[in-house]
Amino acid sequence: MEEMTIRLKGLTCANCAGKIEDAVEKMEETREVHLNLMKQELRLTLAEGAARESVFEKVRDTVKKYESHVEVSLAEPGSHSHDHEEHCHEGCCGHTHGQEEDHTHSHEEGFGKKQLLRFSLGLALFLAAVLWQGEGETLLFLGAYVVFGYDVLWRALRNISKGQIFDENFLMSLSTIGALVIGEMAEAVFVMLFYQIGEAFQAYAVARSRKSITALLDIRPDTVWLLTEEGPRQVSPEQVAVGDRILVKAGERIPLDGIIKKGSAMADTSALTGESVPRFLREGDMALSGCIDQDGLLEIEVTKEFGESMVMKILEMVENAAARKSRTERFITRFARVYTPVVVALAVVLAVLPPVLGMGEFSMWLGRALIFLVVSCPCALVLSVPLTYFAGIGAASRNGILVKGGGDLDTLCHVERVVFDKTGTLTEGKFSVTEIRAEKAEELLALAAAAEGSSNHPIARAVVEKYHQAGTVPQPALSDIKERGGFGITCRAEGEEVLLGNRRLLAEAGIDCPVYEGAGSVIYAAKGGKYLGCLVVADQIRPGCVEGLKSLRQAGIREMVMLTGDRRETAEAVGKELGMDHVRAELLPQDKLASMEGFLELEGTAKTAFVGDGINDAPVLAGADVGIAMGAIGSDAAIEAADVVLMEDEIGKLAVALRIARNTRRIVLQNIVFALAVKAAVLLLSAVGLATMWMAVFADVGVALIAIWNAMRKK
């Protein structure tokens, strides 16, 4: 199916974004629709036979219906939009985008001059009316009401003319005009005043959360120093091709992924990993875009085009996180659509039915119904729930943890079982000689290095590297070297047969040798029919891994499982050292996936996470409840397949991710319970005449402010 991406420059209202997304989704020409407010983009899948031009026109008309000031344009395939700060910088209370402005929302952290003037004038008129208490009192109240509420009234009229009745503008207008009619002047003005304060605070909260994530956009380079025959030339990163060489000076951000060909430097990787300690980069090392060259001049050969570089993949993933909504967010959106018209209908019934039944005067029941309407606004839920997930994703990104969406945060907080891949995740993925058991250890190491020198096997390379590091005895001359698959190597030295391999190789020659029972792969050696000793080659456990696993236990993980293709003895030794509950060894890649599927089929609400290195674990990462790629710096497969990416090689980061996810979920539930409880209480009190308009104001704007403040708390 054909896809389209439409840019909506200037769209900043979450409420209207939801309405636009819903309206476009109902079009016959569309199948899947996702509106990303942070990127200001609408992505949709076209139905079969739908014409792109026609769909674009209908979408533009739909957007203009809700947001006439928004610039609607068709994004070019493969292009990236980063115009996150090119929006209205005036206040939400006074700025307009044109005569047909439907509403305004600020993303400034405070009031502009127009807003200060508006609030000062409105408050002056309101205080004068309260203190005057004479013939001009009504005019002063009306003046203050118009100053605070003119834009709300205008938007309500515009939306009603377009068939959009049940929104916050309609509710505020209806309730406050009704309050004016029954003589509650001060209450009507105060409702509008508090509503505008609430709008400004909401705008500040959204801006603060956007900044916590879009701060990552600072890692996107604007220019690159390209090395040419004429010398360094400043160009845009899109102009640099694979194989070109670029120059990065001290203090500059590395713009593109590549291999360092000249120079060395300390690199600040905190933008990618959340790690404050710089890394030392030298010739031959991989340099990743987004890192800062702190103190050296680097010449880098580019290995990836700009669109495929690490910095762009990270930005794309973080930006798209806002579009992947949790089940709670989707429920709240659907709930608000039903909740508001139901409450308006109940308010009408409350105003009309009791007087008809002779239960009191119409004015009394009208007042109660107006209070009912003020309380009914679902702003606290509609704003605070997505804002909480937004803040949670931002908190995670600041800790070097990339979460792909609110749904993944939701799932992560229910994880109680973690399945680990061993090599590259719990261990370093690099073999080294850990022990030599022989009477003449130096001679054995030299003999093994000579025999293994021509092999590319990781174990053979570990033996050779160990000899280069610690060998003092010259390597003997060997002849007739033969490699026997599944057994080892045979050769001749000084006229005698040499055997290097597993116990089966020596047993075949009738040579007895002691069994090594520790962790690691063992190379047994014999010469001239006599046992010489053995070398133990093992994959080292990552530094800090044991402490990281303990922090997971403390975070509530009740079961930890290790999957590996290693031999059982080695796997069980590593599992015991790490405190694993279960170890499954000698697994092929398809066996790992089958094991993962077995855990997913277990009964209960507990979720299972799989943690892999993101290089060869993509199928298992994708198949788990939550796929977590660890140490994924430089791994494209990790960012594509995983739901959560830990940018550092630290298991302890997973405990941080769990804490953030659970705190986010707890704050969401707190806001939902608090908002609904307060609103339900005031609705009941208003129905029986015990609630005042001031209580209604608190139940609407006050609850929204408290919920938003709660959403913004540190995760």
Give the secondary structure arrangement, pairings included.
Blueprint (H helix, E strand, L loop, with lengths): L2 E7 L4 H12 L4 E7 L4 E6 L5 H15 L4 E4 L38 H20 L4 H25 L6 H14 L3 H30 L9 E5 L2 E5 L9 E4 L9 E5 L2 E4 L1 H4 L5 E3 L4 E2 L4 E2 L4 E5 L7 H12 L5 H30 L5 H15 L2 H20 L2 E3 L2 H7 L2 E7 H5 E12 L2 H12 L5 H13 L7 E7 L3 E6 L2 E6 L1 H6 L12 E7 L2 E12 L3 H10 L4 E5 L4 H11 L3 E3 L4 H12 L6 E6 L5 H6 L2 E5 L5 H6 L2 E3 L5 H36 L5 H19 L4
Parallel strand pairs: 15-22, 15-24, 22-23, 24-25, 25-26
Antiparallel strand pairs: 1-3, 1-4, 2-3, 5-6, 5-7, 7-13, 8-11, 8-13, 9-10, 9-12, 14-26, 16-21, 17-18, 18-19, 19-20, 20-21
Explained architecture:
With 715 residues, the chain is of the alpha+beta class. Among the domains are: 3-74, Alpha-Beta Plaits, CATH 3.30.70; 241-304, Calcium-transporting ATPase, cytoplasmic transduction domain A (Distorted Sandwich), CATH 2.70.150; 390-426 and 542-659, Rossmann fold; 428-540, Calcium-transporting ATPase, cytoplasmic domain N, CATH 3.40.1110. It has a seven-stranded mixed sheet with strand order 14-26-25-24-15-22-23, with helices on both faces. It has a six-stranded antiparallel sheet with strand order 6-5-7-13-8-11, with no helix packed on it. The protein is elongated, with a radius of gyration of 33 Å. Mean pLDDT is 81; it is low at 77-110. Its EC number is 7.2.2.21. Belongs to the cation transport ATPase (P-type) (TC 3.A.3) family. Type IB subfamily. The chain crosses the membrane at residues 116-133, 335-357, 369-391, 667-687, 693-712. It catalyses: Cd(2+)(in) + ATP + H2O = Cd(2+)(out) + ADP + phosphate + H(+). Residues 2-67 form the HMA domain.
